[in-house]
Amino acid sequence: MAVTNSFQEQTRLIHGDSCDSAWRTPGPAIQRGSTVLVPSCEALYDSREVTYGRVGLSTQRVLRNALRDLEHADEAFIYPSGLAAITGTLLALVSSGDEILVCDTVYNPTRRFIAGTLAKFGVRARYFDPQATVAEIEAMLTPQTRLIFLESPGSLTFEMMDVPAIAAMANAAGIMTAIDNTWASGVLFKPLDHGIDVSIQSLTKYVCGHSDVFMGLAAARGRAVELLAASSYETGWAVSPDDAYMALRGLRTLPMRLAKHGEAALRVAQWLERQPEVLSVMCPALPSDPGHRIWKRDYTGMCGLIGAVMQPEAADRIDAMLESLELWGLGYSWGGFESLVIPSNPQITAREEKHSYPGPLIRLHVGLESVDDLLTDLRQGLDLLQFASNASQAKVRATA
Ligand SMILES: *Cc1c(COP(=O)(O)O)cnc(C)c1O
Fold it and tell me: How many C-beta neighbours within 10 Å does residue 173 have?
């Protein structure tokens, strides 16, 4: 049964790779192999066929087709990590002497690659504030500008960018665009529908979804496809069939998991907004967030990742507070089933725009635990901050 595009996305994620055999497993076979045996000498040199396992066999192809469909792309390329997908895309799209414009809130390792490897090969980067207007970004273009690299919402501080407007400006100027779309996981936002050339995501996060597999995606349309095809072939990145299978398994339940994460994160965000220890919450789904209008216009939902600015008085005890949490683990990455938290100030120091946040920043990944339990745990942590106002609050609670 070939599943056509007339089905909803959720149905295609479940049935999109079904084969025609009457006797089959619901998932694809894991095809292992480096050598591919072919029927003739001529076939060894047939560039339309897979003649070597490194480029991926049937399991990787099933995954790539599903991801291509998810991101509304012409072709999907998979890499052994999200960072490899980012660096692979940059290497594919730019050449020595080119200049790239990058949003200042980009994932920190992306910035490191640009400052290190790309600079070594003579690619110059300039950064723009995520709140810059399209006209301000356009004013930065030079004849050498080749690519605009976006991430929306921004890493750690969650600023929303007007992606369709930036893409339209870049397209009119003949400049390529790429976006780190990990937050939306290819479900909540479809960058290629809005004029972006390459949508990148760390599949390590929600697609794999269980904090146990590394993988990345670059989904491309139009002129970017050929560049990515050549570059990924030349650089030799390969993903194992077992990991590809795990990513496919994650894809089946991706929309449902995301919906749960998003619902829970919104509740946590609204709750945090009401706590006296919290100065502000960074979450575009909140009406109070500066990015709310764009989020509402372009996105169909939110994931589980939010941030908060704590009251300045919290600075001394914030680490102790985070370490005291029972359910919220201290750890990098996100997108798995479990709740995580990190203090995030050290990661924004490389930015050009030195926003002075009045208090310490934290980033929370809201997992799939009971939200009530998560809030109880957070509240006991906040109590450790021992604000002057806490005494009266505790009294109110005790008498309530
Ligand atoms: C985690 C992450 C990456 C890198 O993904 P890995 O699979 O860990 O290499 C890239 N971009 C964003 C926004 C991320 O959160």
Answer: 11
Q: How far is the CA of 93 from the centre of ligand 1 (A)?
A: 19
d(CA 275, CA 255): 30
- Per-domain boundaries in the chain: 41-252, 254-399
> Concatenated DSSP letters for 355-377?
---SS-EEEEE--SS-HHHHHHH
* Spatial contact of 302 and 262, defined as CB atoms under 8 Å apart: yes
What is the SS3 assignment for 388? helix
Distance from CA of residue 365 to its chain's centroid? 13
If you classify domain 254-399 with CATH, what class do you get? alpha beta
Q: 48 has which bridge partners? A: none
Residue whose C-alpha is closest to residue 361's, from 161, 205, 158: 158
The candidate with the shortest Cα–Cα distance to 203, out of 66, 81, 72, is 81
- Give the burial class of 377: count Cβ atoms within 10 A of its Cβ; 0-12 exposed, 13-18 middle, 19 or more buried: middle
From 105, 205, 210, 344, the mutation candidate for ligand 1 (largest count of ligand atoms within 8 A of CB) is 205
Fold of 41-252: Aspartate Aminotransferase; domain 2 (3.40.640)
- pLDDT exceeds 50 at position 98: yes
DSSP-derived secondary structure for 233-272: HHHT----HHHHHHHHHHHHHHHHHHHHHHHHHHHHHHHH
**Centre of ligand 1 from the C-alpha of residue 103, in Å:** 16
Rounded distance from Cα 109 to ligand 1 centre (Å): 8
Share of the chain above pLDDT 70, in %: 96
Report in angstroms the alpha-carbon separations of 263 from 66, 183, 299, 370.
25, 15, 14, 12
For the chain, what is the total number of helices (H) and then of strands (E)? 13, 12
The set of protein residues with a Cβ atom below 6 angstroms from ligand 1 is: 81-83, 107, 155, 180, 182, 202, 204-205, 214, 216, 333
pLDDT at 191 exceeding the cut of 60 = yes
In one-letter notation, the amino acid at residue 106 is V
* φ, ψ of residue 336 in degrees (nearest 5): -85, -175
In this predicted structure, the answer to whether residue 2 has a pLDDT above a threshold of 70 is no
- Inter-residue contact 220 to 197 (CB < 8 Å): yes
Render pLDDT for 264-285 as a digit per residue (tens, 0 to 9).
999 999 999 999 999 999 999 9
